[in-house]
Write a structure and sequence with these properties.
This protein has 423 residues and is mostly helical. It has one domain: Growth Hormone, Chain: A, CATH 1.20.1250. It is built from 18 helices and 2 strands. It has a two-stranded antiparallel sheet with strand order 1-2. A hairpin with an 8-residue loop joins strand 1 and strand 2. Helix 7 runs antiparallel to helix 8, helix 7 packs across helix 10 and helix 12 runs antiparallel to helix 16. The longest helix has 30 residues. The radius of gyration is 20 Å and the shape is globular. The chain starts with a strand and ends in an 8-residue tail after the last helix. It is found in: Cell membrane. This is MFS transporter. Its main location: membrane. It comes from Streptodolium elevatio. Keywords: Cell membrane, Membrane, Transmembrane, Transmembrane helix, Transport.
Length: 423
């Protein structure tokens, strides 16, 4: 609800809720769209750049940029949560945008593959700081009743921007070449994101403190407000069945996203598709994923989280298997639509699970641990897909990730408890 929480005679009342904080919430949606656009500038162009410009023949070598991105982002996510609690959300957000500034130039003019990998290290830090912080800030603002909806809007903005930028850079590359023109979009995104975050975004840490002050005490000692970071990490990673199942599902989800990012374009190219067609396929998946989250996040607030996550993981597995079995553009379009729909069921719902279970006093750190595992999936997916593709074939790599995704869905079905019972 939007009832005020009084903090003291000298401090204005803080109101939780989407309606009460609509202006700042909407601004953060725009900022996260720019965060997604920074990632989208790579989705079509970089796999082709590895093949055509830098002539990397081994799949494991060509996927090093995803490995660098995923490992860096995963670690940065963890620190983003801790730093957001210690220093505030806004300084972490601004720092993330400052680190983003050189990335488009490195991608556009880097003289060797090592420069591209370094750009993705910086991009991982940028994404870890900015995306984690926009997630935390939106959860701060909306309070406990609309977390699924808030995460739906957050993730929708980011991944619709990924899709739009992937399609735009594919179209630019088909006319102007792979470098430098496609990456000029990223330069504009970084400048605009830094400006908005510095000048217009307001701190939200006091909203979390207000919610924590009104939070009912728990009989479970593991849910108290004063857990250490180590205890939070253990609970989120291992001991709490909902938090740890969400972390596992998130890691597998991003392992299959690494496959879609780094391997699918090469598979499509091997069957004779043009750069423009590959750009369309690279955009369809995150477009359906992004737009669908506005529905699925809201839906999870009404029917619960667990069954949506289970269904989404199994649908992703079926879609990835269809990619492996397919050989034509339109079959792959259908597969990408299904993969996007499955991911839309999962992505905001997993974040909502973390928000449901974690105490407001340590929620930012729990989000950081979850995102450590989730975005570690990029590194896992790059290593696994690259190794299997080099040893056997691209198709074998795709089938392997399909099986892993199905297993993750079964783990959620068996192990996770419902964290937001239907109304």
């Amino acid at each position: 609800m939007t009832a005020p929480v009084t903090r003291g005679p000298a401090t204005p009342a803080i109101r939780l809720g989407l309606r009460a904080n609509l202006a700042q919430f909407s601004l953060l949606v725009v900022v996260n769209a720019l965060v997604g656009g920074m990632l989208g500038q790579e989705r079509t162009v970089l796999p082709l750049l590895a093949d055509e410009t830098f002539h990397l023949n081994a799949y494991s070598a060509s996927l090093t940029y995803i490995l660098a991105f995923g490992a860096t982002k995963a670690v940065t996510n963890f620190f983003a949560g801790t730093w957001s609690d210690r220093y505030g959300r806004k300084p972490v957000l601004v720092a993330g945008w400052l680190i983003a500034l050189p990335v488009p130039a490195l991608l556009a003019w880097g003289p060797s593959w090592g420069w591209i990998v370094f750009a993705n290290v910086l991009l991982g830090v940028n994404q870890g700081l900015t995306w984690s912080t926009t997630v935390i800030m939106k959860i701060d603002l909306v309070g406990p009743e609309r977390r699924g909806l808030a995460m739906g809007f957050n993730e929708a903005a980011g991944y619709v921007a990924v899709a739009a930028t992937a399609m735009a850079t594919g179209a630019i590359a088909s006319h102007a070449g792979l470098r430098p023109e496609p990456f000029l979009l990223g330069a504009a995104y970084a400048a605009l994101g830094l400006g908005l975050s510095t000048l217009a975004v307001r701190e939200t840490r006091e909203h979390a403190r207000a919610e924590a002050a009104a939070h009912p005490p728990s009989a479970d000692p593991d849910h108290h407000a004063d857990l250490t970071t180590g205890q939070i990490a253990k609970r989120t990673s291992l001991t709490d069945k909902a938090l740890s199942s969400a972390s596992w599902a998130g890691m597998v989800n991003n392992a299959n996203d690494a496959l879609a990012w780094g391997v699918f374009p090469l598979l499509f190219k091997s069957h004779g598709l043009s750069v423009a067609q590959i750009g369309v396929l690279a955009a369809v998946y995150p477009a359906v994923w992004g737009a669908g989250q506005m529905l699925t996040g809201w839906w999870s607030d009404h029917i619960g989280r667990k069954h949506l996550i289970t269904a989404g993981m199994l649908l992703q597995a079926a879609a990835i298997a269809l990619v492996a079995a397919g050989t034509t553009f339109w079959v792959w379009v259908i597969a990408q639509v299904l993969l996007g729909a499955g991911t839309a069921l999962v992505y905001p719902t997993l974040l909502a699970v973390i928000g449901d279970v974690a105490h407001p006093a340590w929620r930012a750190r729990a989000v950081g641990v979850y995102r450590l595992w989730r975005d570690g999936g990029f590194a896992v997916g790059a290593l696994l897909a690259g190794a299997v593709a080099d040893i056997w074939s691209v198709e074998a790599a795709v089938w392997t990730v399909a099986v892993l995704t199905a297993l993750a869905g079964l783990v959620v079905a068996v192990r996770m408890y419902e964290t937001h019972p239907p109304r």
